[in-house]
Amino acid sequence: MSDVNSKRATHNFNSQHNAIGAWFLGPQAENFVYLQKIFNNVAEHQMEARQKYFPDDLPFINSETQASPEFQESMKKLEGTLRCLMGHLSDHSVPFWSPRYMGHMNTDTSLPANVGYLTTMFFNQNNVSAEGGPLTTLIEIEVGKQLCEMVGYNIDSANKNEPVGWGHITCGARNLKFYPLSLRRASDHTEPLHFIADSFKVELCDGTQKLLKDCSTWEMLNIKAQTILDFTERLSKEYNISEQYLESVMHNYLIQTVGKDVLKKHFGVTKPTLYFVGATKHYSWPKAAAVTGIGSENLRNIPVNNAARMDPDALDKLLQQCLENQQAVYAVVTIMGSTEHGAVDPLSQVVKLREKYEKLGLTFVIHADAAWGGYFASMICKTPEDRAIHSPDPNMDYVPTLALRPYTENELKHLKFCDSITVDPHKSGYCPYPAGGLLYRDGRMKHMVTWTSPVVFQDSDYECVGIYGIEGSKPGSSSVGVWFSHEIIGLHSNGYGALLGEATFTCTKMYTHWATMSTDDTSFTVVPFNPLPAELEGQTSEEIEAQKEFIRQRIVNRSNTDLIHDEDALELIKKLGSDLIINTFACNFRIDGKVNENVIEANSLNRRIYERFSIRKITDKMNTKPLIITSTKLSQKAYGECLTNFKRRLGLKGDQDLYILVNVVMSPFPTVGNFIGELANEFKKVAEEEAKVSIKHNKSSPDHHGFIMQGTDSLYLVHLPMFYMENHNHQLILQAELPPDVMEKYIEVRQQDPKQIMMLGNIEETTLNDLMSKKEFKAEIYKGLPDGSGSYWMTGVPVKNVRVIKKRGLRPNYLDTHYPTGHMPFYLYGTEKQLHIDHLLVKAPNIHISADQVKLELESGTLDKTRSEIGVLAHITSINEIVMQPFKNNSTLEEGFIIKPGAKFDIELYDDPVKDPEANGPGLNDVSKTTPFAKGTITLGSNVWLDTDMLNEDHLDHPVCASQWRERFADLLSEHERYWTCPLHS
């Protein structure tokens, strides 16, 4: 075993896990007796705290008040409503505390965090200002120091070689980039600081010295952060300018006051300053760019590699372009633990790239989004004192810890080089919401979100931390909860490090189930996003299967105690899974042994599995959810080749976004016994059930098919298509014949009511292919859609001489990636006397539009019999389809909808670019290499068919209805009224 990897798995046996057991209430409230005692202490202390403040004050609520009917009624209502609320919360809240919950970045919050939060909550402290929470403000500052120290920032003000870090429980933005421009304006010859212009030199990012007044705009936009933060202290020392005077003068020049546009115009900045962030960014980043005025368009994605980590080579190219174009860069953001897959970006490479480009004249701030990954730095923090390690107790379950991968550890060690870091205690810090943290390597940077000067931070400063964020209020209880959890657990390898180490082992053990669950005998496949080592090494399929079998025998089906003594198994387990305790995976299914290639159908399968293992609505029963996971959708645009590669491993083809499953393992408890194995078996059972549903849904089988009847001189049949049903996912136009007597009666009905839609359907179930190949079938004819009652206009009608006009498949791989622009395409077909149209479906979702007996008036060109019989492509140029998509459902298509009987449109006619009438797309509407053979207008007849419901219906999709939520909540409120009016102590 290698020295590096031998340290990834440790076995402190029971002692570490025993300590962790005291940090939580427990999945079954095992520590309830301790919690009850703590709650009693909190309540008693709250009483004492209130009574010792001016104890001689008379009671404001006396016994007489408490005995009054009004008081008793109000208290009765409180107790009754509370009982009702507690019952509903226990029935309808997501059970984050359970090891069965493996969904979002959430789990049971630590007992110390809850106690600290609850204790302080009664004091209702507001840390937005010191007068709202003097003690809790100091505690928040202390929490900031603790987090700064954990990530490697200097917190010792006596250390003059490093800036002093600072942090708080909040969020913020920065205006650092434009501060040199503001100072330059303030020192122009007619401005208040003009006297510094001829002597105030600044160090450029390449190390050269230059007078600020002589710096180009490009040079000023690329001054290092620490150099800018030194300005105030330098101005004070070199020019005896007081901080107060500087602050008052600079107020009128700061970007916070005048806005970004004024400064950019004054200095001729024409290119937007860019913000680079990895493509795996959290959804809050575009929102932040919008709020701060940067604009989401200027928040540029950095492509990711197949591991979903930022591609440093791609970043290098982007920075080179910025250098060549002299386009400034605000910052580069590295994601230290992505939300979807726990991937850690190569921060060390970003640091090297900044060093490279600073020598060339380009610099930027580095921000680490370690909201998820920040606390994992505790796994590499030294322990103040080692806990005693005892021998294993063979009668007790044992949970090992798994250390960070060498790659991940190295990147976390580089956090100390970031200018700022977000760390969220309410994620991997196991603290209650809300508790987000923002840390600065140089504490003076916090002034960039205010109008105050970036002064040197002093330990003696008693600060109002609220001014350094954008909140109007911030609960002191959040900070105290975080601090208390830090104090009890510890931000080191035997504290949070041990907790996260156990979670890491548990997550990896869960990964082994995902990686080996599917076999040749299962109807489904499970593919983890993170490949097995054998896959990464490019081994053969036989060798990959051999590794899976090794995992099944030596890891999946072994107890933790046995596993820790199996060196070969341990050597492999250290290489498995993601960077930071998130398992991303997706399922697919096989039809007759062949893996499904349709992304849309794989998405449907994964969505249904997610719905079986999630609590999404108030009517969901928690006890029917033995496992809770989450899901997300990976964007092809954002993930590029990374997602294409994952689809390839799943056996999928197509450019559609991919719906995936995610399980986040934060609990240290699931590997006790065979609990994970039980959860995996529950998943396997559901995956098999849903895979069989998908197989049935996607396997062509005999069925009933509906057709719109068009024409009275010759009969045309337009199939009713459905994108998401294999039996009906074809756009099909047929020509056929009815017996003369039937045709005569049909014509009579059409003449009596020209608007009447007539439908025809096959009586005996068959496939479309069989129906076309036999060229005849027995049918039933209906006036309008069948109503399900079994009634029809005519039955037993022989349909003969069936001929295909157009047959186009509607599977996702046959569709275009974009809707038509500048027109709406139709097939135009028929006889010399009667022409009909059917909307060409090139992308889903869409609308089915069919109209018979349209009036064509050509201004140029002609439509001959040959062309009309085989069908041509007609572009209605007065309708721009892309701007109308997606269309509303049938019930809400307005009466004033543009496509209606009698409507007249401009039209261009093209020969069908796809000559084979039964060929599939994409590209069915591509007329880029040809010109229209005729132009004119088309007027719709009185018979127009419009449908979006049936065309876009997915029988396997069960969307959550918001109205159901509201109705159920109303029921709960009504139930609450009954609760509190009933006797409580019957």
Explain this structure to me?
- The chain has 986 residues and is of the alpha+beta class.
- Among the domains are: 176-253, no CATH class; 270-380 and 408-424, Type I PLP-dependent aspartate aminotransferase-like (Major domain) (Aspartate Aminotransferase, domain 2, 3-Layer(aba) Sandwich), CATH 3.40.640.10; 496-698, no CATH class; 706-952, no CATH class.
- Helix content is 35%, strand content 17%.
- It contains 34 helices and 29 strands.
- Strands 2-11-10-8-7-5-6 form a seven-stranded mixed sheet, with helices on both faces. It has a six-stranded antiparallel barrel with strand order 17-18-19-22-21-20. Strands 23-24-25-28-27-26 form a six-stranded antiparallel β-barrel.
- A hairpin with a 2-residue loop joins strand 13 and strand 14.
- Helix 3 runs parallel beside helix 6 (111-121).
- The longest helix is centred in the N-terminal third of the chain and has 24 residues, at 69-92.
- The protein is globular, with a radius of gyration of 35 Å.
- The model is unreliable at 1-13, 386-398, 454-461 and 979-986 (pLDDT under 50).
